[in-house]
Every structure is written in C-alpha cells, then in structure tokens.
C-alpha cells in the first residue's frame, strides 16, 4: 500500500467528494456506493484510473498507481 500522506489541502478536496466517507492524512474510507460502482465498472473491464477520474477523484492527489492499485485490491477482496 502507498505511504502517501495527504496534506490538509488534499484532505479538504477529497472530503468534498460524495463518494468519500472519511479522509485523514493517512487514508481514505470510500462509501459503500462507490465500492459497488467500482466493482461493477471494474467488472466491465474499465481501468481503475478511469473509474476514479469519472467519479471525481484527482489522480494526482490519490498517488497515481500505487494508491489506486491498493484500493482496487482492498475493494475486490471485500467483494
């Protein structure tokens, strides 16, 4: 998993996304709705980066592939 630490500005931006339940300097908790959307879109063959971008996440804040791959693994494991 990524060792990215979010700045206060990044936390503020992320917390405004309706698919974020909670966010701290060390991590993001996504809503159950986003997890379901993610699994559905991933199952259709859509790339994780595109899913995040389409649902309002700034890839530069998330930490590009390291963080996205970690989220993908976590959500897939949960479902």
Would you spell out the secondary-structure blueprint of this structure?
Blueprint: H1 8-15, E1 20-24, E2 27-30, H2 32-43, H3 48-54, H4 59-62, H5 64-78
Antiparallel strand pairs: 1-2
Features:
single chain, about 80 residues, mainly alpha, 2 strands, about 10% strand, globular
Characterization of this structure:
With 79 residues, this protein is mainly α. It has one domain. 58% of the residues lie in helices and 11% in strands. The two termini are 19 Å apart. The model has no long low-confidence stretch (mean pLDDT 87). Pfam families: HTH_Tnp_2.
Total DSSP E strands: 2
The order of strands across the largest sheet is 1-2
Number of helices, counting only DSSP H or I runs of 4 residues or more: 5
Q: Return the string of H and E elements.
A: HEEHHHH
Based on helices, strands and strand pairing, what is the structural class?
mainly alpha
Unreliable stretches: none
**What is the residue-averaged pLDDT?**
87
> What is the CA–CA distance across the termini?
19 Å
Biggest sheet architecture: 2 strands, antiparallel
Radius of gyration, in Å, reads 12 Å
Share in helix: 55-70%
Strand content: 5-15%
Q: What general outline do the C-alpha atoms trace?
A: globular
Provide the number of structural domains: 1
InterPro entries: HTH_Tnp (IPR046929)
Protein name: Transposase-like protein
Organism: Clostridium scatologenes
What is the compact description of this entry?
This protein has 79 residues and is mostly helical. It has five helices and two strands; from the N terminus they run αββαααα. Strand 1 (20-24) and strand 2 (27-30) form a beta hairpin.
